[in-house]
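Q&A log
Question type: sequence-to-structure
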Amino acid sequence: MGKRRIACNFKEWEVNTSMRVYGIRSLGEFHIKKGFSARLEIESMNTPVRVPPKQDYTHREWVWGAMAGIKKDYHISKSLRGNAQVLYNLFDPNYKSPYTDRMNMRIGLEYKMPKKKPGKV
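Response status: OK
Response body:
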């Protein structure tokens, strides 16, 4: 299933649809214990790019990045799982990353769809 990113401005309570970001990501995880994992990601994202000194977004570009950090998986219910990740942006050439800070936090939810029984539609 695909991932979605939504740009939110919590100070003004608005969603910015022009700030969509998409791309490819490859990752590796190493299980530590009790739902904790070390995580490394390499990605290439198509993102609006800021141009100094005004920091206005002028065009879109494919930007490479790398993030490393820790992830915690947890169960909410029988069919609902969650995760929280704290990642540090290791690679930000020319300061074009779509992430405004080096330290990032992500949260996620996964819903396990029940399997259909054979013969039923």
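Response note: Strands lie at 8-9, 14-15, 22-33, 36-51, 56-75, 80-91, 103-111.
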